[in-house]
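Need a sequence for this fold. Nothing fancy.
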């Protein structure tokens, strides 16, 4: 047999024990000794790596253990295999060893508790008292050789009882303590369980358990550091009770250890956790406890420590114990208070302890970017006239670098601070001089950077300026009457170098463990600052605010799941080093462990080959039968040539799965493999080496073997077999699997399925209760059956005691449909793993899994047909607790009906949650229930946060109406989101939600802002109704608006296109309404119209854009009135044709008017002309013919309604109209061709005698007219005095040479042909030379005639005359004169009906035909005179208007 003893403990640098692993004794058969020894070195290293870094003592132990384990052992011959009986015996012994290991661990735990003797409490109390009387205010950087504050004491104890030797030692750096017995080092590994060495809170102890007489000796503790060695010795005498044998008497009087007076049993309950404070605040650390017996006058003895230093009650630390509480209050927090706080309470069995870290962050700086306050201000080298003040620098993360420090002093009892240095000092120490002998002082320090001054530090303890010698002096020299520090040679280098590699590992869900390598150049290191940063952020945050002395630190207060990186800076009196390199990113997630004592897992087994390609082999194995209490999280594989005894590790990093591909093998060589499993406790024993496996490439077309056969739902007559797909698939994909079964020990296998199944599980039934079976599986592809799997482990067809099946049901409270299983057995590490069709469900939104105690429930979120199937659950770390249930459609429908019935008691709502915008921009959210009781309760939840009635929100309800409402006073962008109301009324519930996001929210926000602006607008003069239009009965468009809150001084103005409009009637704002008319509305009235209100209270504007749709709406409104007022179509004949006219209140071409002939739309053309005036619409048929006979219609549309008027132009109506057209056409032709004076004659001529008068005009007619001149109605004949000419049938002249008064009179010209003529009169006045020019007659002002040359028309035979002719006024209107010729054509009657007398006669729309008569250039204007011929235009009687 081979005994292997392993003992390890992990300690901090200062002796604080972090975790421990008790001694483990492995008892193994000799047959496996070589296997264990050959692979032990790697196993031991893995154990120590999992346990963490050890101290120097543990390194020593590790070295001894490694050396002992490396001793040569018996080597098993190659290819030697155990028989089945040997394997079973080996497994039985392994099981026995595991059970024995658990018993030993329990015994060791009991021994550790029992060794907490009363003498420990008494010794620690004395140590504390001695330390309290001794002043230890030495500066942290002062080096000192070891010195025992509490020395070892001699002990006399009885045999088989424990004894504890302890001492307290100080020194800088911290000494290392080694224990000796009779001058020989004490080795805990030499006698497992005999010795235990501890170091806590500066107390070093050696515990000897179950003393025997041979333990009587002189024991010594040797403390060593670079500055020296100190030794403390004490004797231990072990006495044997009388009758038990001879005593060992060494000449010393037996003396039993004094018992501590405390007999109280104390159990800590609620403990203070990691805490966070801020400078200037206060915090309390509280532990609750149960004390037996609970004596009011005898409270437990409690001590508080900070960073292993005992705290004393004072103004900065208030302590109290009693009433089931131990409390430490820090009323005035400073960064000096940051550290690890420990509560130690002395109990009957020893001590009860608890520790947690307190972080103190900087208070708000006095100026943005200013540094934090310095800390740990202390006075050294105290003298009668100076004191050396030293401190520690603050951490600077995102602030500017510190440029220096100011030191202040204050006499004790005063609040007046005096600055000691004029310029900032750059190092963290400064000599203060000028003190008064015998006076006491306090000191404080402030840091300075480019942004400003920091807050002052906590003031130092009181210092009296005396020439005291008890304090160690720092060397100071005097220069020019002042004191300066002497800088040693090794201090000239300044700040330390940057720390080395930073490694972060998981700790808890909100903390990370950070460790780093110290700087290469320490330079009187004070400590370290650790900074953190979330990945993706640029801002660093401080993890500690007080320099931390060790190279490992737990960062607390992190966001769970967030990923961080960390960096470290070293600190000394000169400042901070450069930052270290950043650590690798790490997520804040919990690590394994948690205070549970775990064992290593047992060995894996069943190694099998899954595939081989000639240079690599894929192997698999089975899980250990015992996991050791924690989940197996790693596997390590080793391989060796079958002809060699040397094992080679395959993987250095952990393998998570139970499959591994071993590469770089030699083809044709046989290899053996072994596997080790690891968990939180360490690496377990290696498996038995596999059978030799040949590295030969697989080339068969069939698939390789399936593997990892496992069982579920084992019952008395059935079970479920599960397996994994083969790694080697062959020439084609796997199409199914065949399963065979045999009874244990039998070689006769029975096929369970003749047709291959395409899934990797099989329900096996028909088993015999209590019988054991084995199974094997082979895969099938297109080439055939592949290799069989390794035989499964034997499984007994017997259900576990108390096995229960999955229950399907509906929750009576919530109506949830669920599947539930109550496990018959469970352990602390067990988990319920649910599957559907034997595929793990995991995080699926369709189901939710909850576990409470032994029961796990899977609840369906929204069950439907997709949830149908077979569900199973397996409880891990048990002996196969599992069950399954098939959810069928009928069962699901039944449960859905029951779920609905349970959930039915809801509050029926008449209206769900809705909103409305109130005035002032308030938003009201409301809902209405059919009925509410007075006991109703409800909650408004906005974006997952409950809103209560208060500032900005008003929440109320009305039971009578069932309305629940919330009014939001100020609705802004922050109010976007989901609004939910949850109502509870007895057992009934209701919930309604309103999603206000995106466009819906924007519309609500826009309306709220509009109403808010409207409210502000209405505080001054405003439009209560903005500009709008109306149309009057006479089709006048009115722009109107209504105004409010106006006064007499309020002005009102109209604008069109920014040009002011001034209506005939000024607007009267006091009437509350203003309007402006737009008569005869048409497209010219397009534009932007604006109305403006203004007074001293404000201004308001209303705008109406009359274009686009607004313009169309106005036209439609006009058409509505005009169409209703339209008359029937009337006939009007003209010389051009037949016209149909429709009279109405108003017509404009923008109106939608359609003319139709025989239901066909008429387009305006030369044949059919369409037009109108403001009073009517017309359609004219030019040069009509029989084709134009028929039914004519006009349609007037207002967009909604069409008004129709018709006229039947056929039969007699057409005949009469056509005759009238021909008559008017002939009359027009006669009028056009009759004789007429085109122009050139004046109305009045005044001329002086002896002058020549020429009256010349242009005449026209077809045929050429006859021209006759008259004087005083007597025809004038041509003579020498009076000459008459008519040239070319166009130019007629009357020339009087040397006029006399007798020539005065009324002259006229008569021009006519067969179609008619024209008669024009001229008045001539002759005055003598020197007389006053006579007044012109006929009311016209005439200019005196000026002698002019008579115009000669073209081709005229008459000679030019030099006689002057009068020039009439160009723009003198023509006089209307009666023609002596009667009209030759009578005026015919119109065939159109006679209109009523009250109807006004409209103007004729008939256009004036163009005259083909040439108009000569003449100095006389054209006059209009009455013609003896019929008029050119005939007005038709106006029909009555409707």
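Here you go.
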């Amino acid at each position: 047999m081979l005994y292997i003893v392993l003992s390890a403990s992990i300690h901090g640098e200062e002796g604080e024990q972090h975790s421990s692993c008790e001694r483990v004794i492995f008892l193994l058969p000799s047959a496996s000794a070589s296997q264990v020894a050959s692979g032990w070195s790697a196993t031991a290293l893995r154990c120590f790596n999992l346990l963490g870094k050890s101290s120097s003592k543990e390194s020593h132990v590790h070295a001894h253990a490694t050396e002992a384990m490396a001793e040569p052992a018996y080597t098993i011959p190659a290819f030697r295999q155990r028989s089945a009986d040997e394997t079973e015996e080996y497994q039985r012994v392994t099981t026995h060893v595991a059970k024995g290991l658990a018993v030993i661990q329990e015994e060791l735990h009991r021994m550790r508790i029992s060794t907490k003797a009363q003498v420990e409490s008494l010794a620690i109390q004395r140590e504390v008292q001695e330390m309290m009387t001794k002043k230890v205010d030495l500066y942290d950087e002062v080096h000192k050789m070891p010195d025992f504050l509490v020395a070892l004491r001699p002990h006399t104890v009885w045999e088989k009882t424990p004894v504890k030797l302890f001492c307290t030692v100080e020194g800088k750096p911290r000494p290392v303590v080694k224990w000796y017995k009779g001058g020989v080092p004490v080795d805990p590994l030499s006698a497992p369980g005999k010795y235990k060495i501890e170091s806590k809170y500066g107390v070093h102890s050696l515990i000897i358990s179950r003393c025997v007489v041979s333990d009587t000796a002189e024991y010594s503790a040797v403390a060593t550091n670079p500055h020296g060695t100190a030794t403390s010795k004490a004797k231990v005498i072990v006495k044997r009770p009388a009758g038990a044998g001879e005593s060992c008497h060494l000449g010393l009087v037996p003396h039993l250890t004094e018992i501590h007076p405390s007999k109280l049993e104390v159990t800590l309950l609620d403990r203070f956790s990691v805490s966070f404070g801020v400078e200037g605040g206060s915090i309390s650390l509280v532990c609750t406890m149960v004390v037996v017996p609970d004596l009011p006058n005898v409270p437990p003895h409690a001590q508080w420590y900070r960073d292993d230093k005992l705290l004393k009650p004072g103004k900065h630390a208030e302590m109290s114990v009693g009433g089931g509480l131990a409390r430490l209050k820090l009323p005035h927090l400073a960064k000096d208070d940051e550290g690890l706080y420990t509560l130690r309470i002395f109990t009957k069995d020893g001590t009860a302890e608890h520790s947690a870290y307190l972080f103190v962050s900087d208070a708000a700086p006095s100026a943005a970017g200013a540094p934090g306050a310095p800390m740990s201000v202390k006075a050294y080298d105290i003298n009668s006239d100076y004191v050396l003040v030293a401190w520690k620098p603050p951490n600077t993360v995102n602030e500017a670098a510190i440029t220096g420090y100011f030191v202040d002093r204050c006499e004790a009892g005063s609040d007046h601070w005096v600055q000691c240095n004029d310029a900032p000092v750059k190092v963290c120490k400064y000599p203060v001089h000028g003190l008064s002998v015998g006076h006491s002082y306090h000191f404080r320090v402030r840091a300075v950077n480019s942004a400003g001054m920091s807050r002052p530090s906590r003031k130092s303890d009181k210092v009296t300026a005396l020439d005291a010698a008890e304090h160690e002096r720092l060397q100071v020299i005097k220069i020019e009457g002042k004191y300066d520090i002497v800088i040693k040679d090794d201090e000239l280098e300044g700040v330390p170098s940057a720390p080395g590699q930073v490694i972060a590992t998981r700790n808890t869900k909100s903390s990370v463990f950070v460790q780093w390598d110290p700087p290469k150049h320490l330079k009187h290191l004070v400590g370290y600052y650790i900074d953190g940063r979330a990945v993706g952020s640029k801002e660093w945050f401080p993890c500690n605010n007080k320099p931390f002395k060790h190279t490992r630190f737990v960062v607390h207060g992190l966001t769970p799941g967030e990923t961080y990186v960390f960096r470290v800076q070293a600190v000394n009196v000169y400042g901070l080093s450069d930052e270290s390199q950043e650590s690798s990113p790490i997520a804040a997630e919990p690590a394994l462990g948690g205070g549970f004592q775990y064992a290593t897992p047992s060995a894996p087994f069943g190694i099998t080959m899954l595939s081989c390609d000639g240079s690599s082999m894929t192997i698999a194995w089975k899980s250990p039968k015992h996991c050791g209490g924690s989940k197996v999280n790693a596997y390590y594989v080793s391989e060796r040539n079958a002809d060699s005894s040397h094992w080679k590790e395959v993987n250095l990093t952990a393998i998570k799965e139970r499959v591994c591909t071993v590469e770089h093998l030699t083809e044709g060589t046989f290899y053996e493999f072994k596997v080790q499993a690891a968990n939180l406790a360490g690496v377990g024993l290696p498996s038995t080496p596999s059978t030799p496996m040949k590295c030969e490439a697989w080339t068969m077309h069939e698939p390789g073997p399936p593997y990892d056969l496992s069982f579920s739902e084992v019952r008395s007559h059935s079970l479920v077999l599960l397996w994994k797909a083969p790694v080697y698939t062959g020439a084609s994909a796997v199409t199914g699997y065949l399963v065979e079964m045999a009874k244990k020990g039998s070689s006769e296998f029975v096929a369970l399925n003749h047709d291959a199944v395409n899934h990797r599980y099989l329900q096996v039934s028909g088993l015999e209760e209590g019988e054991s079976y084995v199974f094997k599986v082979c895969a099938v592809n297109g080439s055939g059956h592949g290799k069989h799997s390794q035989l499964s482990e034997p499984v007994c067809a017997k259900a576990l005691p108390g096995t229960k099946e999955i229950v399907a049901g509906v929750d009576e409270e919530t109506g949830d449909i669920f599947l539930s299983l109550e496990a018959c057995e469970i352990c602390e590490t067990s988990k319920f793993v649910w599957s559907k069709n034997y595929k793990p469900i995991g995080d699926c939104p369709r189901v939710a899994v909850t576990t409470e105690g032994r029961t796990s429930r899977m609840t369906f979120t929204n069950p439907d047909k997709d949830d149908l199937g077979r569900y199973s659950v397996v409880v891990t770390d048990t002996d196969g607790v599992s069950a399954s249930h098939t959810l069928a459609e009928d069962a699901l429908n039944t449960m859905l009906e029951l779920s609905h019935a349970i959930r039915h008691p809801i509050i029926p709502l008449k209206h769900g949650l809705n909103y409305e915008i109130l005035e002032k921009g308030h938003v009201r959210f409301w809902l209405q229930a059919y009925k509410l009781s007075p006991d109703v309760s409800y909650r408004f939840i906005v974006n997952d946060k409950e809103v209560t009635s208060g500032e900005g929100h008003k929440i109320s309800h009305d039971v009578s109406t069932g309305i629940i409402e919330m009014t939001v006073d100020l609705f802004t962008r922050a109010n976007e989101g989901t609004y939910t109301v949850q109502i509870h009324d007895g057992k009934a519930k209701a919930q309604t939600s309103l999603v206000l996001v995106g466009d819906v929210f924007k519309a609500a926000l826009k309306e709220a802002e509009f109403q808010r602006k409207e409210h502000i607008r209405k505080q001054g003069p405003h439009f209560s109704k903005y500009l709008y239009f109306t149309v009057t009965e006479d089709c006048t468009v009115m722009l109107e608006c209504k105004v409010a809150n106006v006064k007499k001084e309020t002005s009102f103005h109209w604008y069109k296109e920014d040009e002011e409009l001034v209506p005939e009637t000024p607007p009267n704002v006091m009437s509350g309404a203003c309007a402006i008319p737009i008569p005869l509305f048409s497209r010219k009235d397009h534009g932007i119209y604006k109305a403006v209100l203004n007074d001293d209270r404000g201004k308001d504007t209303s705008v109406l854009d009359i274009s686009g749709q607004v313009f169309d709406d106005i036209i439609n409104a006009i058409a509505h009135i005009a169409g209703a007022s339209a008359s029937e179509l009337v006939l009007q004949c003209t010389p051009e044709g037949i016209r149909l006219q429709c009279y109405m209140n108003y017509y404009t071409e923008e109106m939608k008017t359609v003319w139709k002939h025989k239901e066909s739309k008429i387009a305006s053309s030369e044949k059919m002309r369409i037009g109108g005036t403001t009073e009517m619409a017309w359609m004219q048929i030019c040069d009509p013919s029989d084709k134009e006979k028929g039914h004519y219609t006009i349609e007037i549309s207002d967009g909604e309604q069409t008004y129709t008027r018709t006229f039947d132009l056929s039969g007699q109506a057409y005949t009469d109209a056509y005759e009238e057209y021909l008559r008017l056409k002939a009359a027009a032709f006669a009028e056009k061709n009759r004789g007429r004076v085109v122009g050139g004659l004046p109305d009045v001529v005044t001329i002086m005698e002896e002058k020549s008068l020429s009256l010349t005009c242009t005449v026209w007619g077809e045929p050429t007219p006859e021209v006759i001149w008259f004087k005083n109605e007597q025809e004038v004949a041509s003579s020498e005095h009076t000459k008459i000419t008519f040239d070319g049938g166009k130019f007629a002249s009357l020339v009087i040479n040397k006029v006399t008064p007798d020539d005065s009179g009324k002259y006229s010209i008569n021009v006519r042909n067969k179609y008619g003529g024209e008669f024009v009169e001229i008045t001539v006045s002759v005055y003598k030379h020197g007389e006053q020019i006579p007044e012109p007659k006929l009311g016209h002002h005439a200019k005196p005639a000026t002698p002019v040359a008579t115009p000669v028309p073209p081709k005229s035979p008459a000679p030019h005359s030099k006689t002057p002719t009068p020039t009439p006024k160009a723009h003198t209107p023509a006089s209307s004169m009666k023609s002596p010729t009667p009209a030759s054509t009578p005026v015919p009657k119109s065939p159109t009906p006679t209109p009523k007398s009250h109807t006004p006669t409209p103007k004729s729309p008939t256009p004036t035909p163009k005259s083909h008569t040439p108009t000569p250039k003449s100095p006389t204007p054209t006059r209009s005179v009455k013609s003896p011929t019929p008029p050119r235009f005939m007005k038709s009687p106006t029909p009555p208007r409707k």
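For context: The longest strand covers residues 17-28.
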